[in-house]
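Section 4.2 – Deliverable D4.2 (structural model, holo form)

The reporting period included a commitment to supply a predicted holo structure for the target in complex with manganese (II) ion. Inputs used:
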Amino acid sequence: MAKSDIITIEQLIEKARNYLTADDVEFVSRAYKYAENAHKDQYRKSGEAYIIHPIQVAGILVDLKMDPVTIAGGFLHDVVEDTEITLEMIEEEFNKEVAMLVDGVTKLGKIKYQSKEAQQAENHRKMFVAMAKDIRVILIKLADRLHNMRTLKFLPPEKQRQKANETIEIFAPLAHRLGISTIKWELEDISLRYLNPQQYYRIVQLMKQKREQRESYIEEVIKEVSNQLLDVNIDADISGRPKHLYSIYQKMYKQNKQFNEIYDLLAVRILVNSIKDCYAVLGIIHTCWKPMPGRFKDYIAMPKQNLYQSLHTTVIGPKGDPLEVQIRTKEMHEIAEYGIAAHWAYKEGKQLNKDKKSFEEKLTWFREILDWQSETHDAEEFVESLKVDLFSDMVYVFTPKGDVIELPSGSVPLDFAYRIHTEIGNQTIGAKINGKMEPLDYELKNGDIIEVMTSKHSYGPSQDWLKITQTSQAKNKIRAFFKKQRRDENIAKGKDLVDKEIRALGIEPKEALTEENLKRVYERFNFINDDDLYAAVGYQGITAALVATRLTDKIRQTRQKEQDLAQTLEGARNEYKEKEKKKYKKDSGVIVEGVENLLVRLSKCCNPVPGDEIIGYITKGRGVSVHRSDCPNVLTEEAKERHLHVEWEVDQTQKQYHVDLEISGYDRRGLLNEVLQAVNEMKTNITHVNGRSDRNKMAIIQITILIHNTDHLRKIVERIKQIKDVYTVTRTLQ
Ligand code: MN
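Output (structure tokens):
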């Protein structure tokens, strides 16, 4: 393959004629003319007509002996991106396959790559392959990149480094995977020139200095081997093997070797006609020169993953220097140089099947190729195998910063969000895909640029997310969120249970759930705050009943007192009713405020009468007793709790009340009689009389009389006081 020479369209067509039919050549020419027309008036940075570039790209593809569709794709690869031509127009003018290839190359062109860590480079390579869908897209892209690298000097230095870096990290490894070593080496060497010009030119110098010496040495080896092979009648091409700058650079700088330590600088390659001849030649080489231990590799029996086959050995050569020898068949050499393209080299007369179903089976990259090698020798089938989605299990998408994220296919923006960060996942409220809002269950496609919209105020994951997401990573994080959130649920549940228990105790929750009261209770149970207490109730670490009991203890104590009083009143009322039933009726003439039918009794200790100031006293089980308000029996602190407001009835004329009077006077004959007579004169009944006298001639007369009211009483007391020898008249307590 010519490196710096520009191929003309005439040369290209001439080369194509060597392996394509006249119809195919016509098809390819048509693609050229179409591209030339589309790109007319366009120029490259170098100042050349733009069409030179597609011609070179197609030329590289012709060198790889690609099929006419791929070559047409090479001519047309830039028209959709750079001209008015659309994919539909290409499909109409040519066919679906050409349009598909152009579409693929255009899409790959949109992938932006910035140097990142190795993993990112690997992901980018996978993404390329995944997006390409058809390996021919990658071949066109490699040819495109190769020509762009050849003309890199026309770009500004910054761009040169960027492109060179992208080439070394993405394109050269892709070429290597596909086994296309010619392209791989050239891409690497050009990249090195821009990435590390100093070292590049130093190696160029070093190689130049020893060239003559090296070449004469190789010549000697070739002569010797040729003679040996002539003896055994083996037909072979023997040549010095060119070393590539980049591989020397890597050995020197990555393995830290001196230039003259790199002994495979001296290398010969022997191409023969059969595998049998390969081993025969190996035997001869090992007979001539002593093999170095551990340097023999049989890649014929065990091909490399990219299908490379060859025998490698290193021997101590004629001048005592290590000499590397590669032995392989001519077919193997084709594969070594052109890799996948060599397998695919277009065979005259065979039309490629246009729209065969792609293989159902998902095989890995290398298995497919290897399978093809052992089972299929048909170019058509091979092309079909290349259409299989090689990484169909995966989808490759971009962060807004250009990182590639690898996700299982079927992944949605939420999987992406959780891959970036848990918090981003939890706060996701939407996603922009390629700048457009899409639903959260949007299925990600290769090359999508994803911008996750988040909000600190989002409600967090919903249960649906577990169904939408594909990655176990996302699902696990969503589950973890729910686990944590369950605390919130437990708090709510606990609160609800405690409320219910409080209500069951007949208390309004808000009465019991004061801040102060809650604090008292959660501290008592050794919780930090009320939420912890509620959460514990929620997960049943403590019963709601117990919490409710504690929360209401004070309220219930107060209530109990009130209730006891009420019960007493109720009891008194019932007693009254009982007595009424027995026709027992005793009217006290006292009204108990707000209460009817209550058993009311005038107390016997102070015998209040209408006109006296009175208070009611709630007795235990014997109703209300009415005392004079100055009666010491009802003035104790304890008794005050049982006071009840009572009043005399207004009409008292019909009723009589007992009053105790004590009269003191000089003990003379007839005093008792005069007292009784005076009371009698006042039309007042006496129910009880008791008289005695002491040694000092003091008479004490105690009488109990029935009076109507205090007025009546006062008159009687005045009347008694008028009796001669009466000293005092006192109303007494019993
Ligand atoms: Mn291009």
